[in-house]
Amino acid sequence: MKVPHPIQYQGSKRALASTILRYLPDKFSGLVEPFAGTAAISIAIAIRNRSKSYWINDYNKPLAELLELVINSPVELADFYKKLWNQQHDDSLEHYYQVREDFNRTRDPRLFLYLLSRCVKGSVRYNSEGLFNQSPDKRRHGTRPETMRENILGVSYLLKGKAKITSLDYKQVLLEVKEDDVVYMDPPYQGVCGDRDSRYYSGIVFNEFVAALQDLNARNVRYAVSYDGRTGNKTFGVHLPESLDLTLIELEAGRSTQATLLNRDDITIESLYLSPRLAEEVYALPHFHKRQKTEQLVLMEPKTGYATQIPKKIS
Ligand SMILES: C[S@@+](CC[C@H](N)C(=O)[O-])C[C@H]1O[C@@H](n2cnc3c(N)ncnc32)[C@H](O)[C@@H]1O
Known about the structure:
CATH topology of the largest domain: Rossmann fold
CATH class of the largest domain: Alpha Beta
Helix content: 25-40%
Largest sheet: 10 strands, mixed
Bound molecules: S-adenosylmethionine
Number of domains: 2
């Protein structure tokens, strides 16, 4: 089965999912994604049937509501999308701006699906008042209704009856995580676009995030975090502190959305940090994954002095 993805979202972990999944256990009872975005990791885990249940959370309410519709009301959502998409042909750009205005007024998640599929590179942008202000892609008309329907039905097939969807602050989610769960976190990156990151609905406070990870360590919860990264020698974001005893895996992510935004050609390396219990369970050592050659692992000197374990197996 082709991995279905109805929602276009810049920053989606879709392309890196299969590499990230190598660092999660083979089977477990519950996956928790507190910063789900498009739920790319939940979808990738579900297609491999590796978890029994899924908790998909994103603070962006229309996005969480959209995921809820994709999973639980797929036919109605696909029908609505088809109708809306077909209305654009008289004047496609004017239609987009009208839908955007309607969305900012109503926050209807079905309109959000259309805007994400139709806007420039699926990249959400909000102004200081929290209004969606991204422009339409002038060269494309957005995902065709038949393709959208296939993707929506595909995600629903994988997750219906197994997923809980919420729109809470991540800290609240982490408080409710159980010891048997596996948590994958992909918070908004810091330090890329200046002080305020207009790409996401909310930012996170570094010290609060570190405190939440400390608490997960104390509760012996397995988690993985996509956090900072680098382009060439330039680091973006602040490294997570060594006191958390995390294992650092570096993933070559290609010419990044960040580099694109900054108009540069650098290859971006994204960091994936594994919690002590998770690293131990999957026998992980710090690694560097080259892009499109994920089978060929290049062992790297741990730059940051993160804890290493005796390697036995990478699954
Ligand atoms: C980098 S994106 C996640 C992308 C996701 N991994 C994917 O594959 O699509 C970060 C997400 O965190 C959400 N977010 C921002 N602040 C949050 C908070 N305080 N609690 C929960 N979610 C938050 C944003 O709305 C955004 O969708």
